[in-house]
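Hey, resending since the last one bounced:
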Amino acid sequence: MYFLTGWPRRLLCPLKSEEEPFHVQPSSQRFYFAVLSETQLSVWFSRPSVLIVSYIESAKASSQFGFYQQAEWKQDDSMIAVAAANGYILLFDVVGGGEDKYLYEPVYSKGSSGVKVTPGYKEEQCAPALSLEMKRPLDLEAPITSMQSLQEDLLVSTADGYLHILHWDGVSNGRKAISLCSVPFSLDLQSARGGLCLDLKGVYIRDMTYCVTLDGFAVVLDDGRLGFITPLANRITADQLQGVWAADVTDGTCVAVNNKYRLVTFGCASGSVLVYSIDTTTGSMQLSHKLELTPKHYPDVWNKTGAVKLIRWSPDYSVAMVTWECGGLSLWSVFGAHLICTLGEDFAYRSDGTKKKPINISSMCWGAEGYQLWVITSREETELVENMEEAPPQTQQAGILQFHFIKSALTVNPCTSNQEQVLLHGEDRLYLTCGDPTQLPSSSSESPHPHNLPHGGEGSPPHHPSPNSTSQGLSTLLGYKHWHVVQIHSTYLESNWPIRFAAIDTAGQCIAVAGRRGFAHYSMSTRKWKLFGNITQEQNMTVTGGLVWWNGFVVVACYNFIDRQEELRLYLRSSNLDNTFSSVTKLHSGTLLLNVFRDMIILFRADCSICLYSMERRHDGPNPSASVELLQEVSMSRYIPHPALVVSVTLTSVRTETGITLKAPQQACMADSIILNLAGQLIMLQRDRSGPQIQEKLPFCPPVVLAQYVENVWTTCRSNRKKRHLLEALWLSCGEAGMKVWLPLFPRDHRKPHSFLSRRIMLPFHINIYPLAVLFEDALVLGASNETVLYDSLQGPREGRESLEGLFPYCTVERTSQIYLHHILRQLLVRNLGEQALLLAQSCAALPYFPHVMELMVHVVLEEEATSREPIPDPLLPTVAKFITEFPLFLQTIVHCARKTEFALWNYLFAAVGNPKDLFEECLMAQDLDTAASYLIILQNMEVPAVSRQHATLLFNTALEQGKWDLCRHMIRFLKAIGSGEMETPPPTPTTQEPSSTGGFELFRNRSISLSQSADSIAAGKFNLQKTFSMPSGPSVKGSDRWSKDSDCAENMYIDMMLRRHARHLLEHVRLKELGCFSAQLGFELIGWLCHERTRVARVDDFVMALKCLHKDFLWPFPVIPAGSMSSPFKNGHRRTVLSQHLLKSQSADSLLNSDMDTAPPQAAARNSNHTWLDGLGALGPTEPTEMDTALSHGGPQTQEAFLSPLTNKTEECSIDSATDLTETSSMVDGDWTMVDENFSTLSLTHSELEHISMELANKGPHKSQVQLRYLLHVFMEAGCLEWCVVIGLILREAAVIKQVVNFLDSPEVPPETVQSVRSGLLGVDAWASTDCLGYKPFLNMIRPQLQKLIETSVEQIQPEAFLPGASNSKLAEPQPGGPSAEDSRGPALLGLALPLEPPGGLGTEDGRVPEEQEEQEVDEGVYDCTLS
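The structure tokens again:
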């Protein structure tokens, strides 16, 4: 509603004086302010805030009249009355300065567009020169207690109990005096004729105010009683006054009236403000509500404020500012919603925690349109506040503080309530919540203070919605924390300040503002203002009834000064702002309010009638135009006592009658009802459908009152079949009472509604923010709130006095939003409308925060019922629990709510929703393991450890089976905690498993391989692969150090047993990929376990079945064989591999030509090439020659480093979906086809050669799978599981592996069953390949000698330590200068067991070791890719 912004500003009086100002009084339009000190009357201007004239009383006159006390302006600003202490009324004429006499004039730089030569333009932006002339003083012969200005009279009360009626012209015969004793007071007007009257002897009026809409005076008597005096005739005379008084109140201190809502507010000595309404039938004073600080929000000061000193209603009567004797300011909305208070938080405390003295106020008033509050602080406060180093305090008057406010557009232009944006306007800028956050630059959102934001950020693209366009969506309205701030055009502002109205269109892309004259509009997409090109047209109209957007037009209700005519105008947004592009409709009476519903416009006029017009957009000329046609006039004078009481008028499709069925959605679009907010009473007029059915001109039924204490109303003209409850509801803001929704009730499944069931229901609910907009489909309320920032630490107190920045925090306005759905669902359940609640909830189940709504509902009901001191006869929690079971997120809702609630309430919760053990089992059945883990924490606290262990074991096994490794790690910790008694630290709820964690055995944990990669071969700064991992020595490191504490405790043995059992299960079912992930993720010591299981579960019974399983598991394509394979020149495996290797690695054609692959051996090709290919990074099979790696390690020529990134992309893109259809492209992920294409033109390769290369590429699986398989091969080799080594060697088609295994089979330590198993397995694969998979035949032919050897030859002795796991730590030999050639040593041996990775060539050096660079390069391959994936 109203929000404080920035720091207050201090105005200093330029005249030297030792007197302090103590009273400020605004003129009727609030352009001038009269400021009093003891002998001085000053008149200040509002914008700029400057002193115009000051009248100083002579010492002689001052001793006669006494010091000044208070002032009052005449209604037309032509006179000021000042009350002096000795009972004198001093009347001053305010005289203009004559022709072209201005006190201040704006100075423009040369060539500025600000200079306009237009009559009347200059005076609007200058402070006029005025003078004060004192007329003859009036002596009332008694101290004056209060004054009140009327149209032609001045009402003055004196301390002798008289009420004086003076003429403003001061003529003595116009004086009338009425004794208060002669006014009859009673409790109501009906009992006044013969009932009890107050004894008013010796009593006088302490304070009084006139209320226009109630036509009477609210008075506070000096004994603290409150009354309201009504004149029974037009003139105020003694025998025509009648008073009513408020019972049971004797501590009144001050009074203020709200003309728009017909409320009378009295301040009390207790510190609270009593708000009364006058009953229209009996005339009695009825307490409406109270404005008071609550102990909940202000525990320190709520009862220490002292008496209420002043109450001031804002010019639009939507908020009241209150101050107390002890100081401080507090702001309330009209029906008691508390907005701001300076007695708490940053206003009351410094940043170091010390308490500030609250600011003590002697007088205050609102400025024009409520943008400023003028405050005069009391004398001692002034000495504290003033901070002037250059001048001593007595030479300059420390003056007036101005607090700045921004307010909601709803306060004066309530037609914006059908929009879904929040629009606030300040004195010179607008704050919006619209605009797509993805397109708004950060410039306007990074400033910490929205008040200081620049011209505003970029808007979204222009977008012209149809009248029934959909909601803007959550991302737009919520995803952007800061305001979009638009500075109002300075040219328009200079001559038309203050801004009175603002409106925004449905899409949030266009804004219009209207000031004193004319209007202007702004486009968010172009970020430009449009002003009237002809300033005379602008100055000849003033907006009276507000403005609103419709279909690309600005609809304006205005007064035309030239024709002296009320008009309705429509201006096209896209054309120039000029009367030639407008559509004008003449009106008979002044318009006070307007609103739009679809293509209809509704006007409320000053004669209390309502007019309905239809609008049509036409395209009959170069520019679209609009035609307006009068449909209907409805007189409301019977129901509306005063036109100023109507707060808002709305046309809506909301209705109560039988139209609410599911079969007539098209009727939801019709304008069926008029809704008026009449001084807080919501009145609805529905169309009368009993007569002939002419829809647009149906008469209206008599009005019905829907609700009381209403501040704002929201409704929408959109319709949505899925969310009819929310879109056909009426939303009300009711101040302190929160919000209300008038919800339609629909029969379910087209059934006939019950005759006794109401068709609508009014549901109240509380929210924590002040609502400014309703997002109908999204079930959200948008609002704003004041936030404060302390800056007192930046500048300490100087000379014992604090600056304004130290006294006051900097105020900002924050956007807020709140969910309300859980309140409505709960209210429906309380009223046994569960079916309606279900319909409503199902329509909103797709909202992203719907689970949160359910949690909130359970939580609120649980807190209320479980902590209630009284027994609850009809608890709601079981109903809520049953309601939530209708939704799939029932189990999560309950457990999340329980974990956010204290333990003491759990028994009450689970008594209503069910046993947590049963809910845990439901989670397991539903495969919702993360939720089950949360229930486990509940069980741990509510059950004995044995039950927790039993359920944890169940969950652990299920998590292992599903590969939820994060959850498994949590469960291991949880089971250990149960075993070691660490019950007080339950594990956190595990997060959802990331899809990548079952990928490439990323976390080798304790089974990692050591590597040292040359940094030069890596793109600079891209990845740092210079890592060193430690390599434990196989099974001799007992299970690594996973369980460092209590390694022999029973709990750890129990966990280890479960892990071993799961590993056995995976190996039995040939799920090697899962086994690898399991080992890497949980740190399971795979090699040690495989050593134990070598002769048991680690055997391979069916080689063919195992081979097929690996193909499927690792997405590895079965090899295919081309037609002409036998005659291929590349039949030699070695040459074919090298060629394809270089083809994929080359980055340009010349590098391929330089390598001369037909004649040169591979190492020569490597020496000729000057490119750093992806050698050390595991992009391809490790078939690079030794010299190449040596060159890399020792920093040879390095170029083309950036080729690292394509590899990363390619490996990431390995698609699981391609498992079923592995063609050349789907499995070809570790090369780059575009590079191959570039090189085709320069390669002298035959068609058959290219076919072979492509076949080889097609026969390879994804790169990640290749790394995983090689890692598993290394693990099985180290554990001595030779059968698995053979299977993996077959799928990788590595002849060297087969050859190596066959050599190992000669060892005497290898059991004969293993030899027999490998022999029969290979023969079985050969038989299967001959019939089902010919692609394997070339490879099987290649390893035919090994197979023959296996069948025929005798066993050669091999060193037994080759099988020992300890051999893995043996130092790898450096390559000797005189060592074997690279051709013979290309296959690197890994960790004690030679593991060559290229089909041809030797098996390593004579002693079974391998050159170090080869080793490093192979290891690189695995670790590099795995850590990235």
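DSSP finds 38 helices and 60 strands in the chain.

Sorry for the duplicate.
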